[in-house]
TrEMBL record:
This is D-inositol 3-phosphate glycosyltransferase. The keyword Transferase applies. It comes from Streptomyces albireticuli. It comes from the Bacteria. One of its GO terms (molecular function) is glycosyltransferase activity. The lineage of its organism: Bacteria, Bacillati, Actinomycetota, Actinomycetes, Kitasatosporales. Keywords: Transferase. PANTHER family: D-RHAMNOSYLTRANSFERASE WBPZ (PTHR12526:SF627), GLYCOSYLTRANSFERASE (PTHR12526). Residues 198-362 form the Glycosyl transferase family domain. InterPro entries: Glyco_trans_1. SUPFAM superfamilies: UDP-Glycosyltransferase/glycogen phosphorylase.
Length: 697
């Protein structure tokens, strides 16, 4: 069969996109599959598509590209299809151009099945689709999530389709009640969630992990409030929240107001997310509603026990309370106390976490993409018997009906590109407990001349760069993994890019990052070696390559806690490669100063000290946007200064993620922050822009 999925935007990482990509890959085992993205906002998708799945965009909205169609006259006219508030805004709002492109595609496609994944797309499929192919709709939210005005126009479109699949049985029941006379068959088929390639959690991290879009219905405010109630009793536990969305600023303020900015971190979006689940010991879902719960199953695959609110509809259909997870009833107190009690219990019981996590991995197998693909194939066969059956090869020149006799059972094989044609082989990288980096590559992406992997220090053009080689070992037959191991010996401070190299002509190909597993770094102490204090973190660059951030310093002062108070900043430090002694002090030094401004000093006692805001609060360079005060420690009287930073752990870049609140003193705002080298600095800015202040005067 030829199967097509209609997506509003296939280039993001949302749950609808992930579930579609997962299902498409599973169906590609036996069928020809294409994802049609109505919009193309960027060059490449954030998620990795199975190479057998074709991606076809209809409207090019890449801002700044010569082919950007946003300003075309037809794109300035409104769409004739009903409005869907969740997607009909911004650059990707549907327009007359969208209508034209989707209508033309649905008229020309040779697909046997077209599956629309959003209300707006269901409207398109009902209006412009053809009876020569099966027309299916999917609900990735819930019946209750849509306003009556949308149901008034969406429900007739659903009724006109061949089938409509929700992701929970309860929601399918709501649609059957709302559409008793619908032509469409209404049923529930859950989302496909593959087992992760990353190693599962070992449950030892004392980390609670949550992930999803930062929107009101996800109730991260409830999760944060519940964590605040147990923070004192669980001082060694932390919370990480992954995702992006409009609630980010509000959540950050809540965290700062609670004084938990060193315990709760808004991590931003991560793709793939599976490596982050494996860092956790508990997964948390505190939503008011979950149509399904992709993140629940993803966490279960990683072996995490999930604490979820018993909200409509997904959690209670996925989890069995006390068997493979914990369900927290929603109550009149907003469930904060009940959720906190559940977190307190599970964080204090390692045996319970182990038992629930083990059962969770078994339960998660129900949602394997192959099983979900089977459910869809059964539906196709029921709707149009014979459509999925294998057919004998037909002679050339004879026309095949779109459904008559069915399609060949196996999808056409996709020829692997020649190794030389793979510009950037895909790498999986994992850190071991001793700091060894293992890089794994697919044999079919390598040539016989590729003999070793290479770490090469990034630097200015024309300068000699340091490099480290590791031999490639393992079989070279297609499908085999080839490995390179870089031992724990320190690397010079800086960023190191990764390559495979051919020694004969020194030809290098840079490696892309398919998977980077960092969980061993969570509890790994800084290495104190003969060369100095060392740390390194493999990571994915902003453009998708595998790199390593390394630190190597003769001495280092690791800041373990930062407290922003009314009168000063309190730092708790540990010394590495040195020892704090008599006369130890913390020093704030103006960056780029001419010596006319003295340092700000505070004594260091038992590894802790408080830097006063004065005189930093008095702007030194008012003509510039900010004053920057770099933080140092003098380990003992007469000793050389040592930079204060945070280089332990799994963060290659802390700036913008590991953040602190600001303190206002008069007309200035002071805020500690981590620099691009993960060192600690205090920025001092005017509260108001200079233009406004001048105008007011």
């Amino acid at each position: 069969m030829k199967i097509e999925f209609l997506l509003h935007n296939a280039y993001g990482i949302g749950g609808t996109i992930r579930s579609t990509v997962n299902l498409a890959a599973a169906l590609a085992d036996r069928h020809e599959v294409r994802i049609v993205s109505v919009n193309r906002p960027v060059d490449e998708p954030e998620l990795t598509l199975d190479p057998r799945v074709r991606l076809t965009p209809l409207v090019d909205l890449r801002e700044g590209a010569e082919t950007d169609e946003y300003a075309t006259p037809l794109n300035q006219r409104p769409s004739e299809i009903f409005r869907d508030e969740r997607i009909d805004n911004g650059r990707m709002a549907a327009t007359a151009l969208t209508d034209e492109r989707v209508a033309a595609h649905l008229a020309a496609t040779d697909a046997d099945v077209v599956i629309a994944t959003r209300p707006k797309l269901i409207g398109y499929l009902a209006k412009y689709g053809s009876e020569r192919y099966l027309r299916l709709g999917q609900e990735h939210l819930t019946h209750e999530a849509h306003v009556p005005e949308l149901h008034a126009v969406m429900d007739p479109a659903i009724a006109a389709l061949d089938a409509f699949a929700t992701v929970s049985e309860a929601d399918a029941g709501h649609y059957r009640e709302a559409l008793p006379d619908a032509r469409a068959r209404v049923l529930a088929i859950p989302n496909a969630v593959p087992a992760p390639a990353a190693e599962p959690s070992d449950g030892t991290s004392n980390m609670i992990v949550s992930a999803g879009r930062l929107v009101a219905v996800k109730r991260y405010d409830r999760l944060i409030a519940a964590f605040a109630k147990i923070a004192a009793e669980r001082p060694d536990w932390n919370l990480r929240i992954y995702g992006r969305g409009p609630a980010k600023a509000k959540l950050r303020k809540q965290i700062e107001d609670l004084g938990l900015y060193e315990r709760i971190t808004l991590m931003g979006a991560r793709s793939p997310i599976e490596t982050e689940w494996s860092k956790g010991a508990v997964a948390a879902v505190a939503s008011d509603a979950e149509s399904f719960g992709m993140t629940i199953v993803e966490a279960m695959h990683a072996g995490l026990p999930v604490v979820a609110t018993d909200c409509p509809y997904g959690p209670r259909e996925i989890l069995t309370d006390g068997t493979d997870g914990v369900l927290v009833p929603l109550d009149d107190t907003d469930a904060v106390d009940a959720y906190a009690a559940a977190l307190l219990k599970i964080t204090g019981d390692p045996a319970l976490r182990e038992r629930l996590g083990k059962a969770a991995r078994e339960t998660a197998l129900r949602y394997a993409p192959a099983r979900i693909a089977d459910r869809y194939e059964e539906l196709f066969e029921e709707l149009r018997p014979g459509s999925t059956a294998a057919a004998p090869e037909k002679k050339k020149g004879l026309l095949r009906g779109l459904f008559g006799g069915g399609r060949a059972k196996a999808a056409p094989a996709v020829a692997a590109p020649a190794p030389e044609a793979v510009a950037h082989p895909e790498a999986r990288c994992a850190v071991a407990a001793d700091g060894t980096l293992t890089v794994r590559l697919r044999a079919e992406q390598l040539t016989a001349a590729d003999t070793h992997a290479l770490l090469r220090q990034r630097g200015a053009k024309g300068k000699e760069r340091a490099s480290v080689q590791a031999p490639l070992t393992g079989g070279r037959e297609p499908g085999a993994w080839v490995e390179a191991r870089f031992g724990p010996a320190p690397l010079a401070e800086g960023r190191w890019d990764t390559y495979v190299e051919r020694p004969g002509d020194k030809t290098r190909r840079r490696l892309t990052a398919a998977l980077v597993e960092q969980k061993a770094l969570l509890n790994r102490p800084l290495a104190v070696t003969a060369d100095g204090v060392a740390a390194r973190v493999p990571y994915t660059t902003s453009d998708g390559f595998l790199a390593v951030r390394a630190w190597l310093r003769p001495e280092h002062a690791e800041v373990t806690e930062v407290g922003v108070g009314e009168d000063g900043v309190t730092l708790t430090l540990t010394a590495h490669g040195a020892a704090f002694g008599e006369g130890a002090e913390i020093i704030a030094r103006l960056r780029g100063g001419d010596g006319s401004v003295g340092d700000v000093r505070a004594p260091l006692t038992a590894g802790s000290g408080r830097l006063p805001y004065e005189p930093m609060a008095r702007r030194v360079k008012p003509e510039e946007e900010q004053d920057l005060w770099d933080l140092w420690v003098r380990p003992a009287a007469g000793a050389a200064l040592v930079r204060v930073g945070r280089i332990a752990g799994d963060f290659a870049d802390r700036k913008g993620i590991d953040t602190f609140p600001a303190a206002e003193r008069g007309q200035v705002r002071l805020r500690p922050y981590f620099t691009v080298t993960n060192d600690l600095t205090i920025t001092v800015k005017d509260v108001e822009p200079k233009e406004e202040a001048g105008a007011a005067a």
